[in-house]
Design brief:
The complex is a heterodimer of chains A (559) and B (277).
Chain A (H helix, E strand, L loop, with lengths): L1 H17 L22 H5 L20 E2 L13 E7 L10 E3 L2 E6 L3 E6 L5 E5 L20 E3 L2 E5 L4 E6 L5 E6 L14 E3 L2 E5 L10 E5 L6 E6 L29 E3 L4 E5 L21 E5 L6 E6 L15 E7 L2 E9 L4 E6 L5 E6 L6 E4 L5 E3 L10 E3 L13 E3 L4 E8 L2 E5 L13 E5 L6 E8 L5 E7 L8 E3 L3 E5 L4 E6 L5 E6 L9 E5 L2 E8 L2 E6 L15
Chain B lengths: L1 H4 L8 H7 L2 H9 L7 H11 L1 H4 L22 H10 L16 H16 L12 H9 L9 E2 L2 E2 L9 H4 L2 H9 L21 E6 L4 E9 L3 E6 L4 E5 L3 E6 L14 H13 L5
Antiparallel strand pairs in B: 1-2, 3-4, 3-7, 4-5, 5-6
Helix pairs in contact in B: 2-3, 2-7, 4-7, 6-7, 8-11, 10-11
Classes of the chains: A mainly beta (559), B alpha+beta (277).
Chain lengths: 559, 277
């Protein structure tokens, strides 16, 4: 029975050791699965129906990062306070926790997994992979963005490019497979995506000249089900978009979690930059499928359609942004859409059944394209490629958007995008491929300080039209989350964890956390109390309203 | 001075000697042609491994500026090589394992980084003033210590100048005296990195209070100021009716009463600060 599942979970590492009674941990579990099925696929599909949980990286398969909890709202958000905090291992925190049945599963830098009592923040177990000190991570810091959960197993990617399955109750390893060779630059930093009978992962490594791919693994055994390369080999469709042998080191990494439409049974996965980043001379052509969105058949990995945002990219503008699935009326017809604010400073609306380009518009300062043509292809302004002397272009290589999450509120129909407003002088340099070495071919000198800034922008989800913006001092690295309380939570480089009115952008709450915010907020509910989570510096903060919250649920009878 | 006492490998390039030696030796060094060992390979390695975050010219980007005379974490090349090899835990600075950068390459990159810093150094031959007279000017008639601290003496309204001779070149110092608003100091670390320090701000609150001061910090919700009288003021943005950030201005007075010789003497004095003489 379900209550016992949760209690046993806690009992292994928590109840027995500390004497704390965890009987209520699993209250509210509504699944009738067997003792091993804590979070079956059906719960992932129906994630919107249990807003007390947070079951996937972006909160649901459509990647809305929207909480349907409304206890915290515009009227009371000013009272929000820290309920508990958790100090992580040293490093950058880019993770989004999963919360299921009273337990929070969170990754710590570089690749550890920790289970916490979601009520008190007390640790239940922690798993740390054995990795050498010489793990390569070329072009990105030692980060991890979170776990996936399926049934009673957690799935985590590691910096040394393994995918590991952990028993959710204890942290014991179920299986551990090497996805790719870290010695030539592969890593896993993304939160895996759990589907029905498959764990989907992508890889980092384009700055080392890897050939990117997307993998599907059997959740029970770790056996590879399919692999789809993002760079076509000679003879395959798209191979004519790569000159010479450049495809072999073409990049196209797949380092951010994709989205999934269970009805269409299509998997949406964004693809990274071509390699080398800034010297496009050595890879003439459009360089498919770099900077693309791919729609894949999750059973076979077959590419059903593709759309390329930045053909022949020379600015490192990966398309590894969150792909948001929206159903809406488009010119009088109901359409299934996928929308995204791309790193290249354009906002896109595509038909997610066919990949048809419907609309695109600039949402942040850019100086490289006159606009998009009727097929969504950018009309590139000549002379905007990197040069040996340097060439000033907006946005900077980190883009107008990056991995940090946007949010979509079905209540306001607004798309909330943390936006970087920053230019850079781009340089081109000669580069030769050597395995396990940086393969970038140049660099940038970003404009900084008063010359750069940021904003949380609220865009009309269908037109990309700006509805409001909340200014940020520095270009942000933190995601946002809208809630049914008509709020948008976000974070800043200056250490603010804040809430805005989702309709107007008016600031309603601010907590100075003392260090830069580099992760995306999420929300869950425990004991009937809504919690909001965000991290800054080395600490994860869990916020709640004072009533009934207090210091980690320390009420009479709780202990 | 810790840096000046460091034993330095002889193989290092001339501008680095300029950075680390007392002025007399620096003068001697400056007379030689400044060259970087294996400059082409060093630059290539730097661009491949460092420029993505620190900028091609070392002016910073995602990572901090390297083109400065004294790097806060670096006392000598050995320490810099250690940072390149092992990274800085808790920051975005990764280590480079031996198969990526061998010892020779690490040494070249470190040398290049120090060379970048040395490019901002004083051309010692351009300092023509009398440092002793500059010292008198600074502490007596110039009254500079009413706004600057040197070696623990003075008042902190403007930047501390204890090691300004290590951090800034003579041209910069000349400009700072004759046109202080031309180039405000820029924060070099933390979230404020790249933002102006000592930015004059004028604020009027909804209550009608008026504050003139320098911005000490700011985020989307608050701003912190020091007024010209040295008082600390913390305001929430919601309290503010008007705020003018006076980019292009400085609270440092233009040295109108100083003639050219006075300026040169002050520059000569300031360039000695932090240089162990």
């Amino acid at each position: 029975m379900e209550v016992l599942i949760g209690c046993g979970l806690a009992a292994r590492r928590g109840c027995a050791a500390s004497g704390i009674a965890f009987a209520a941990v699993a209250l509210g579990v509504s699944t009738g699965q067997s003792a091993t099925a804590q979070v079956p696929y059906e719960r992932l599909v129906a994630a919107d129906s249990e807003p007390e949980s947070w079951l996937t990286y972006s909160g649901n398969y459509g990647s809305h990062r929207f909480s349907r909890l409304d206890q915290i709202n515009a009227a009371n958000v000013a009272d929000l306070r820290v309920v508990w905090a958790y100090q992580m291992d040293e490093g950058l925190i880019e993770t989004t926790p999963i919360v299921a049945d009273g337990v929070m599963y969170v990754t710590e830098p570089p690749s550890s997994v920790t289970a916490l009592d979601a009520r008190t923040g007390k640790r239940l177990w922690k798993w740390t992979p054995q990795m050498g000190s010489d793990v390569l991570h070329i072009g990105f810091p030692e980060v991890n963005r979170g776990v996936a959960i399926l049934d009673s197993t957690l799935y985590v990617g590691t910096l040394d490019a393994h995918l590991v399955a952990l028993d959710a109750r204890s942290g014991a390893v179920r299986w551990d497979v090497e996805v790719a060779d870290n010695a030539i630059g592969f890593s896993l930093t993304l939160a895996p995506l759990a589907l029905d009978g498959k764990i989907i992962v992508g890889v980092s490594g384009a700055e080392a000249g890897v050939r990117g791919f997307i993998d599907a693994y059997d959740p029970d055994t770790g056996k590879l089900i399919w692999r789809t390369y993002t760079i076509p080999a000679p003879g395959e469709f798209g191979s004519d978009t790569w000159g010479g042998n450049s495809w072999e080191t073409g990049g196209g990494s797949t380092w951010l979690t994709g989205s999934y439409d269970p009805e269409l049974d299509l998997l949406y996965w964004p693809i990274g930059n071509p390699a080398p980043d800034w010297n496009g001379d050595v890879r003439p052509g459009d360089n498919l499928y770099t900077d693309c969105l791919l729609a894949l058949d999750p059973d076979t990995g077959e590419i059903v359609w593709w759309f390329q945002f930045t053909p022949h990219d020379t600015h490192d503008w990966d398309a590894n942004q969150i792909q948001v699935l929206v159903d809406a009326e488009w010119e009088g017809e109901p359409r299934k859409l996928v929308v995204t604010a791309n790193r290249n400073a354009f906002y896109y609306v595509l038909d997610r059944e066919t990949g048809e380009f419907l609309h695109g518009t600039e949402y942040s300062k850019q100086t490289w394209a006159e606009g998009l043509d009727e097929n969504g292809r950018p009309i590139v302004i000549p002379g905007t490629d990197p040069t040996e002397e340097g060439n000033l272009v907006w946005p900077s290589l980190q883009g107008a958007a990056n991995w940090f999450s946007p949010s979509y509120s079905p209540m306001t129909r607004l798309f909330y995008q943390p936006t970087r407003i920053m230019g850079a002088i781009y340089y081109k340099a000669d580069v030769e491929y050597e395995p396990g070495q940086p393969f970038m071919g140049g660099g940038e000198q970003a404009l900084r300080g008063e010359e750069a800034s940021g904003a949380v922008k609220a865009l009309d989800v269908l037109t990309g039209e700006l509805k409001w913006e909340f200014p940020l001092q520095s270009p942000p690295w933190a995601g946002v989350m809208a809630t049914a309380g008509n709020l948008v939570f976000g974070g800043s480089e200056e250490g603010n964890i804040f809430a805005l009115d989702a309709g107007t952008g008016e600031p309603l709450w601010n907590f100075q956390a003392g260090a830069a915010v580099r992760s995306g907020p999420m929300s869950f509910e425990i004991d009937g109390q809504q919690r909001v989570v965000n991290s800054a510096g080395g600490t994860m903060f869990v916020f709640g309203l004072p009533e009934g919250g207090g210091s980690g649920g320390a009420r009479p009878g709780s202990f | 001075m810790r840096i000046a006492q460091t034993t330095w490998p002889l193989s290092l390039a001339v501008p680095i000697l300029l950075l680390l030696c007392p002025p007399a030796a620096a003068q001697e060094a400056a007379d030689a042609a400044p060259e970087l060992e294996d400059a082409e390979r060093a630059e290539r390695l730097y661009r491949a491994h460092c420029a993505r975050c620190h900028g091609v010219q070392g002016l910073g980007g995602e990572g901090p500026e390297l083109a400065q005379l004294a790097l806060p974490r670096v006392a000598d090349q050995v320490q810099l090589e250690r940072i390149i090899r092992f990274g800085i835990p808790g920051t975005g600075m990764p280590g480079a394992r031996a198969t990526v950068l061998d010892d020779d390459a690490v040494s070249l990159v470190a040398g290049y980084v120090l060379w970048l810093g040395a490019q901002t150094t004083v051309d010692a031959s351009s300092v023509t003033g009398d440092a002793d007279r500059g010292l008198d000017l600074f502490w007596a008639e110039g009254d500079c210590a009413s706004c600057h601290i040197v070696a623990g003496q003075g008042t902190a309204v403007g930047p501390e100048l204890t090691i300004i001779g290590l951090r800034r070149g003579a041209d910069y110092l000349r400009e700072a005296l004759s046109a202080p608003a031309a180039r405000l100091p820029v924060a070099r670390s933390g979230a404020r990195s790249g933002f102006f320090e000592y930015l004059p701000v004028r604020i009027v609150t909804h209550d009608g209070d008026i504050y003139n001061g320098m911005r000490m910090n700011e985020d989307s919700f608050t701003i912190q100021l020091m007024t010209v009288s040295g008082a600390f003021v913390s305001l929430r943005k919601g309290e503010i009716a008007e705020m003018e950030k006076r980019v292009g201005h400085s609270l440092m007075p233009v040295a109108q009463d100083l003639d050219e010789d006075d300026v040169e003497d002050l520059v000569a004095y300031l360039t000695t600060l932090g240089r162990g003489s």
